[in-house]
Design a protein that fits this description.
single chain; about 425 residues; alpha+beta; 6-stranded mixed beta sheet; 3-stranded antiparallel beta sheet; 9 strands; about 50% helix
């Protein structure tokens, strides 16, 4: 028998895996965008196809936040700030990926390589940044969110209790963290500004409240010295932050940024593996941060349309050109259409509130057999429609049981393999 909390855990793992695979699968599309443009600057980050990929990465980290707050609840305004941090980190990470992939478009003679060769070469970028790095970063976002939620709870009690540093207390604990075990200080201590966990990638340390009369208070300066040792080195000092005080999952100075970012008024210029001028770094940062606000507006629009569709669209049907049966609407299709990238994404989303009449006025232009081995789908139909007075295509699934189901809206048709 599977208990409710076990089912929830399994559902969370399935969703986490699905979000991870979505990123890996979307990378070739991002590279196709880069290849078409044949150029990349920080201003390119505003393109919808780039933003779509950034959102997929950010959604993965947001899942870490959502999972953590089920264990330790936190106010919605605090959750929102953590997710904004995820988006900024994701944008900078994707900027890094694109900069690393861009030089692979040219061969040794500075000529454009065939796309297939380019895509094969940049797969190593995908495997690194959207493989091992991504999983480690997810773990960090999860631990940071837990720590932020705990800190918010500790703040309510002020210095009534002391805080005590605790490791996972097993043979996997790194030596430098083991030295922090049992450090006991009040929440107002400067120690917690820099050494509240996580104190490194895959750090499992935590902090608990303890009664002041049960454990002796540690020497603050000695504790700070031990904390400094635990985070010493070029790749460790970036972890000197308190997620709850700063309300961020990732510190301003992280794997994709430089030390001075920590004190920047924007808290986030960046430096990549390649030498990129500071003005480009700061420009990219400002673009990404502007994208945060736009992303929040987009999320709100999607939520509003999803709620509208539940009441007004799901369960309804419509007839369309050269489709031999009624087209059904379900939430899976609505969500897919809302998540699909598009140059005019807000107009595309808004069109769903008038999709029935749009489909009636559309023109059937193509059908294609399913090539994704979906056991339920026979073929796809494409109906030409207008979004912002430009051509787009509504995608209709013809199921093997004879039903027709609205599936998505895309900006362009894929080329046939024999084209």
């Amino acid at each position: 028998m599977l208990l409710a909390d076990e089912r929830d855990s399994e559902d969370e793992d399935e969703e986490k895996t699905s979000l991870f695979e979505r990123i890996k699968a979307a990378f070739p599309l991002l590279m196709a965008w880069l290849y078409r443009h044949k150029d990349f600057t920080y201003e390119s980050m505003t393109d919808e196809e780039v933003q779509s990929f950034v959102r997929k990465v950010s959604d993965y980290f947001d899942h870490a936040v959502d999972t953590s707050i089920r264990q330790v609840p936190m106010a919605e305004v605090s959750v929102q700030r953590l997710k904004e941090s995820n988006y900024v980190f994701s944008g900078i990470k994707v900027f890094h990926e694109l900069n690393e992939a861009f030089p692979s478009m040219l061969d040794d003679n500075n000529e454009l390589r065939p796309f297939e060769d380019f895509l094969k070469d940049v797969q190593k970028v995908n495997n690194t940044y959207n493989g091992s790095y991504l999983k480690t970063e997810y773990n960090f976002a999860y631990q940071s969110s837990l720590s932020a939620a705990r800190w918010k709870q500790f703040e309510k009690d002020g210095d009534r209790y002391n805080l005590q540093y605790r490791t996972a207390y097993d043979d996997r604990v790194r030596t430098s963290h083991r030295k922090l075990e049992g450090i006991t200080l009040p929440p107002s201590s400067k120690f917690w500004n820099d050494y509240f966990p996580p104190n490194g990638w895959n750090c499992r340390c935590t902090v608990v409240q303890v009664r002041k009369d049960k454990y002796p208070e540690s020497d603050e300066q000695k504790a700070i010295d031990l904390g400094s040792q635990a985070t010493a080195g070029r790749h460790q000092e970036m972890f000197k932050f308190n997620p709850g005080k700063e309300m961020t999952t990732f510190p301003a100075y992280n794997a994709y940024t430089i030390r001075k970012c920590k004190n920047c008024k924007y808290n986030g210029a960046l430096k990549l593996a390649a030498d990129i001028p500071d003005n480009e770094l700061c420009g990219a940062c400002k673009v990404v941060r502007a994208m945060v606000e736009a992303n929040e507006e987009l999320k709100a629009q999607r939520l509003k349309i999803r709620e509208w569709a539940k009441e007004n669209l799901v369960g309804k049907t419509v007839l369309a050109h050269k489709i031999s049966g009624p087209i059904e609407f379900n939430m899976a299709g609505i969500k897919e259409a809302l998540n699909q990238p598009h140059k005019y994404i807000r107009e595309k989303n808004k069109s769903l509130m008038n999709i029935a009449s749009i489909l009636k006025d559309g023109e059937h232009v193509q059908k294609r057999l399913d090539d994704k081995n979906n056991p339920m789908v026979y073929q796809y139909h494409y109906i030409k429609i207008k979004i912002y007075n430009k051509p787009s295509y509504a995608v209709i699934r013809e199921m093997k049981d004879g039903r027709f189901v609205f599936y998505s809206i895309v900006e362009r048709l894929k080329k046939k393999k024999d084209d």
